[in-house]
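Query structure, 442 tokens:
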């Protein structure tokens, strides 16, 4: 698109992505062509636009990362052991599904459920309405796992054996599974968890809409700044997705707070946990204001990284670095009391006042200065060349003297000019102060 602004040298190009329209500006054609080439080269890569992100949340695809395991671990696809003594392979960061790198492509998209649709045919429908079944994952149980039904040890280090529910964390023998109630009680964090059965519709503008079931008395929306505190943010993100519905956990660095707040806005009340520094908290609070949700939500802070003044003031401590503590932290959060907090924006208007000097004086001053500087330059140049070229001692000495005096004079003049400047800027500052009025806005 040819340039349409009044800046004649600027090139502009419109770029349309699935979610937004951007205008790209460049100084010249060459630069614009470089940009176009760069954009073309990444065109086919996976993009992380916010709506794409929400699709990821609901796709059922596993979120692989490569890792080693301290004990024998088995592939959930081919059932063989993962390779090497360290059982190296891929693990899903949400459901802990294990796979060989070569097997990952064949894994079914059965990651931890997020929506009613993702549960599929397993949904339990009876006189109480719709309920959630357990979501079982086979094998790789922790050491000393006990069967919920018969209370005997279950799992095995020799093969993929026995089951664990991703929600209530119950573990059972294959033979005992039938005896367990088919409805999942959602476990330790059930007050905070939004069961997938509660996510079943999309509102008119395309955002997921959650409806609150009776079990979930105080749903929790989690925002994690994945860039906070070294790698802490990433670890916390992972742990929260394991403990809660992955759809209620959002990475602030990947789409911001908007999506999550839109998802929860139909709830009468809900809680928000922000894991990050003061900046992250401020970001979420601002978005709450934009969506006008401040009456229906309460916000807690899990401080990560540095810059956690707010968390310290509110008694959450200055930094949390242990992701193993998360279940306890969630319980603590369920019992926490709330404090009202006022937020203010301070806007300062500053008006520049003309200097006290009349315009003509200023101009005179300036031209005077520049003329004087020219004579200094000439004098310095002349005497320096004399010093360098002359073979007469007397000439060298007298030139050096003049040079010293010129420099002294010049320095004195610079000092005076500086004083004059500070005086006038003090004057204008004093004037500006008189007219500064802070505007306080809620
Ligand atoms: Zn395999
Ligand atoms: Zn998974
Ligand atoms: Zn369960
Ligand atoms: Zn059993």
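Result returned for the query:
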């Amino acid at each position: 698109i040819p340039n349409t602004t009044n800046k004649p040298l600027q090139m502009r190009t419109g770029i349309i992505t699935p979610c937004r329209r951007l205008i790209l500006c460049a100084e010249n054609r060459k630069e614009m062509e470089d940009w176009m080439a760069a954009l073309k080269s990444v065109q086919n890569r996976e993009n992380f636009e916010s709506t794409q992100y929400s699709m990821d949340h609901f796709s059922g695809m596993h979120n692989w990362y490569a890792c080693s395991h301290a004990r024998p671990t088995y592939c959930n696809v081919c059932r063989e052991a993962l390779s090497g003594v360290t059982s190296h392979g891929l693990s899903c960061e949400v459901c802990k599904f294990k796979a060989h790198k070569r097997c990952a492509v064949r894994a079914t998209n059965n990651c931890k459920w997020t929506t009613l649709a993702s549960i599929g045919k397993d949904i339990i429908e009876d006189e109480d309405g719709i309920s959630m079944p357990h979501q079982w994952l086979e094998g790789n149980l922790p050491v000393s796992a006990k069967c919920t039904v018969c209370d005997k040890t279950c799992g095995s280090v020799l093969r993929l054996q026995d089951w664990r529910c991703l929600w209530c964390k119950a573990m059972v023998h294959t033979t005992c599974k039938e005896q367990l109630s088919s409805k999942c009680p959602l476990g330790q964090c059930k007050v905070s968890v939004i069961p997938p059965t509660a996510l079943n519709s999309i509102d008119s503008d395309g955002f997921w809409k959650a409806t609150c079931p009776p079990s979930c008395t105080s749903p929790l929306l989690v925002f994690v700044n994945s860039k906070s505190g070294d790698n802490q943010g990433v670890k916390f993100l992972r742990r929260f997705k394991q403990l809660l519905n992955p759809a209620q956990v959002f990475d602030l660095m990947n789409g911001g707070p908007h999506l999550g707040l839109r998802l929860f806005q139909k709830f009468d009340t809900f809680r928000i946990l922000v894991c990050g520094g003061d900046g992250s908290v401020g970001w979420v609070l601002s978005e709450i204001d934009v969506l006008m949700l401040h009456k229906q939500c309460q916000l807690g802070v899990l401080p990560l990284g540095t810059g956690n003044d707010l968390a310290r003031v509110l008694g959450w401590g200055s930094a949390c670095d242990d992701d193993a503590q998360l279940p306890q932290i969630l319980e603590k959060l369920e019992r926490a009391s709330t404090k009202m907090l006022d937020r203010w924006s301070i806007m300062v208007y500053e008006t520049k006042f003309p200097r006290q000097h009349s315009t003509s004086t200023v101009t005179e001053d300036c031209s005077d200065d520049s003329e004087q500087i020219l004579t200094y330059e000439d004098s310095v140049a002349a005497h320096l060349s004399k010093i360098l070229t002359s073979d007469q001692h007397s000439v060298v000495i007298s030139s050096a003297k003049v040079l010293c005096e010129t420099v002294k004079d010049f320095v004195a003049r610079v000092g005076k000019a500086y004083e004059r400047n500070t005086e006038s800027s003090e004057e204008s500052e004093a004037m500006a102060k008189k007219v500064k009025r802070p505007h306080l806005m809620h």
